[in-house]
Design a protein that fits this description.
Blueprint lengths: L1 E10 L7 E11 L3 E6 L6 H8 L7 E6 L2 E3 L4 H11 E4 L11 H12 L4 H14 L15 H14 L4 E5 L7 H14 L4 E6 L2 H7 L2 E6 L2 E7 L14 E2 L4 E6 L4 E6 L8 E6 L2 E6 L16 E2 L3 H6 L25 H11 L8 H25 L3 H4 L6 E5 L2 H5 L4 H8 L5 E6 L6 E7 L10 E11 L7 E4 L7 E5 H8 L2 H5 L12 E6 L2 E11 L5 E4 L9 H5 L3 E6 L2 H10 L4 E4 H16 L1 H26 L3 H9 L4 H37 L3 H4 L5 H27 L3 H7 L3
Parallel strand pairs: 3-8, 3-9, 6-7, 7-8, 11-16, 20-25, 22-24
Antiparallel strand pairs: 1-2, 1-4, 4-5, 9-10, 12-13, 14-15, 17-26, 17-27, 18-26, 19-20, 19-23, 21-24, 22-25, 23-24
């Protein structure tokens, strides 16, 4: 089953204080029986046990686990092997102190990936009953005696249904009677499984071991089959040996009573009352009164103390692994991030951080709210800031490599004049749109604030244009125009328009306006408003103001109006031009880039703050991690893989962040949003809170806190379970 060959391990290898703790050991274990590593302290017993159990590394040699031969320590395989095959019983129990007896059993079932609810309950019940701890299943393990805690540890090891059980000085902290009872259980287990035990107690070893392996200075000096002829003292001061007491009997038809006493100085009076099927007892005795029932640790034995000590009748356990039902086990933990979060909410210990830590995370949330609402104004781009063209416009930019191929604006113009779907072309680089001047004063009182809109527009021929008139009518004459809703809304939102009583599209119908283009001015009449969301003014093709070809051909980029944008882009690319794009997308990206460059200081400050927070939180969590080192060491030693432990910490940090940073961030963001929406202060307008940047900020917060949490944990998990335990003295 397990075979070690020429195994070596050193402490401080290569240094002056080098110690050869495992020295060229070879051995082969059968698939069942109780093997005991015996020897004085420091001889390498526990180290050898840890190496065999994949808790620690080795320097050379090989270990064969069920036909899998390893010549070096493989962390991934070690995790998998411990998870599936090894049950551990430790001298100091290594129970999870925050959990109940039953939850400690359920924890190991989580680790091995047993998901069947009925089988989980079945295993917990069977294992706890086998060690006499089922009645204490709801009790916290810190409320148990040493013997009881070790029984729970044994039940936990059994619940895995392991092929091998390792026990490191399992009775080292127990009294003689608990030692005897624990060893009886381990002996029973060894009849079905391989048990490897470490002990330095000669009487214990001689009494229980099937095979004894004596070690000295890291070397096996003796190995022999045990004849089991030893003896062991079983005295237990908790028991009452009735044969050592004088006995008096009192009987009548209703009550029988035996009185045992070890002294003649007994002075006690009892009143016994039967009422409604219940028994009431009152005593006037000045002596301390103990009530004994089947759940009491005090046992009444019909033996003398001497008979008990000399009795060699090992108590057989009725536990059998065959009682476990066949059930799918993943072979790896299924704690996962969501179960980690659930456990974190369930167990308040996860939230017991210092007040300083909570205050820091709350402040981080407030700072993030201001930073991300400010960052929002850095990256938010209003379409009205950059859209100068309608949807049917393509932009072409002439690059140097185009010029080398003879591709120019003039050539493009000549190529497109006869192309179906082409409508017009104007210069794009430096283009600020045509100008629509609308100047009217409706009231004497507003003579000095008449509507004088001079917004950018894009003149669009109404040929083949599909739009719907929402106010007024369509174009009939050459001096008439139809405004898009985009243009009409901009006019109506102008302060001067409001002061002159303009309230709707109907107020614009019939008004005269001037259109300026390259110095030319054309007076037109507004006859309608179309349902277009583009900055367009629709005009008859006959009255369209053509751009000077001389001015056009000297440019490096043009806007091209067309019927089908996708087909036009493809056609121009086929002509060989390298830079062809949707004019709106290109303009939007340029505006976004301009905004970002203008507020790069805000972005850099945000990145610096995030980095600083990650470093600070990592150091803070590293400091708080010492309080959880024991739990990490226990989980790793009983079979939890790194993913399980990381999931646990992820869940803890998620909950802690939610109850601190998330709340302060959200509340602050809502306050900023309220002031931004209801007040016009320029100080407030510096920030621009919106849902997108709120969600981005939220994502960054959780990523930042989770990353800060995982860094120190990942560093810890890079060590073997034994290194974690020894380094932090668990």
């Amino acid at each position: 089953m397990i075979k070690i060959e020429h195994l070596n391990k050193y402490y401080n290898k290569g240094n002056r204080n080098e110690y050869h703790v495992i020295n060229d050991i070879s051995y082969e274990f059968n698939d069942k029986g109780l093997y005991v590593f015996f020897g004085p302290s420091g001889c390498g017993k526990t180290t050898l046990l840890n190496v065999i159990g994949a808790l620690d590394k080795f320097d050379s040699g090989t270990i064969t686990y069920f036909e899998q031969r390893l010549s070096r320590y493989n962390a991934r395989y070690a995790d998998e092997f411990r998870n599936k095959n090894i049950g551990y019983i430790f001298q100091n129990y290594n129970l999870l102190d925050s959990k109940s007896v039953e939850d400690n059993i359920m924890a190991i079932l989580d680790i091995i990936g047993l998901t069947d609810i009925d089988e989980r309950k079945n295993r917990a019940k069977l294992c706890l009953e086998s060690v006499g701890m089922y009645k204490y299943r709801k009790r916290n393990v810190t409320a148990l005696s040493g013997g009881q805690r070790q029984r729970v540890a044994i039940a936990r090891a059994l619940a895995k249904d392991p092929k091998v059980i390792l026990a490191d000085e399992p009775t080292g902290n127990l009294d003689s009677n608990n030692t005897f009872e624990i060893m009886n259980i381990i002996k029973s287990i060894s009849k079905d499984r391989l048990v490897i035990l470490v002990s330095h107690e000669k009487d214990l070893v001689d009494y229980y071991a099937d095979r004894i392996i004596e070690l000295k200075d890291g070397v096996i000096v003796n190995d022999y089959e045990n004849s089991n002829v030893g003896s062991i003292v079983r005295k237990d001061v908790r028991n009452i040996y009735l044969k050592d007491y004088t006995k008096e009997e009192y009987n009548n038809e209703k009550v029988s009573m035996n009185i045992y006493e070890d002294t003649d100085k007994v002075d006690a009076h009892f009143d016994i009352i039967f009422k409604n099927g219940e028994l009431y007892i009152k005593t006037s005795s000045k002596s301390k009164v103990h009530y004994i029932d089947d759940s009491s640790e005090i046992k009444l034995l019909d033996l003398s103390e001497e008979e008990f000590i000399n009795e060699r009748n090992e108590k057989e356990s009725d536990f059998s692994f065959e009682s476990f039902k066949s059930s799918e086990i993943k072979g790896k933990g299924y704690i996962g991030i969501f179960k980690g979060i659930k456990n974190a909410f369930k167990e308040t210990k996860y939230l017991k951080r210092s007040k300083f830590s909570r205050v820091v995370l709350i402040i981080i949330g407030i700072v993030f709210a201001f930073m991300f609402s400010s960052f929002s104004s850095s990256i938010s781009v209003d379409k009205k800031e950059y859209i100068l063209t309608p949807d049917n416009v393509v932009e072409v930019v002439i690059k140097h490599k185009d010029e080398l191929k003879g591709l120019t604006i003039e050539k493009l113009y000549n190529d497109l004049k006869t192309y179906p779907g082409y409508e017009s072309m104007i210069q794009s680089r430096g283009y600020a749109g045509h100008r629509l001047n609308l100047n009217i004063q409706r009231f004497y009182q507003t003579a000095n604030s008449g509507v004088n809109y001079q917004g950018n527009i894009y003149l669009t021929k109404n040929t083949n244009m599909k739009y719907k008139i929402v106010e007024g009518r369509d174009i009939i004459a050459n001096d008439e125009v139809v405004l898009s809703e985009w243009i009409a809304d901009n006019i109506l939102n102008d302060v001067s328009a409001v002061s002159n009583g303009f309230s709707g599209y109907s107020d614009l119908i019939g008004m005269d306006a001037d259109i300026r283009s390259l110095g030319d001015i054309k007076t037109v009449k507004i006859v309608g408003v179309a349902d277009s969301k583009n900055p367009s003014v629709y005009i008859n093709s006959d009255s369209y103001l053509e751009e000077s070809t001389t001015y056009l051909f000297s440019s490096e980029g043009v806007y091209i109006s067309c019927v089908n944008k996708e087909e036009m882009i493809k056609h121009i690319k086929d002509l060989g031009y390298s830079t062809v794009s949707d004019s709106i997308k290109g303009a939007g990206f340029r505006k976004f880039k301009e905004n970002l460059e203008a507020k790069m200081g805000t972005v850099i400050a945000l990145l610096v703050m995030i980095t600083a927070i990650i470093i600070y939180l990592a150091l803070m969590i590293r400091a708080s991690l010492f309080s959880k080192i024991k739990e990490v060491g226990i989980l790793r030693s009983i079979g939890a893989n790194k993913k399980d432990v990381l999931s646990m910490f992820c869940g803890e940090m998620f909950v802690f962040t939610t109850l601190t940073t998330f709340i302060s961030y959200t509340v602050t963001y809502l306050i900023i949003f309220y002031f931004n929406s209801n007040f016009s202060s320029q100080l407030i307008k510096v920030v621009n809170p919106n849902l997108l940047t709120y969600l981005i900020g939220l994502l960054v917060i959780y990523l930042t806190t989770e990353l800060s949490s995982l860094i120190p944990v990942a560093i810890l998990l890079s060590k073997t379970p034994v290194e974690i335990i020894k380094k932090y003295d668990i």
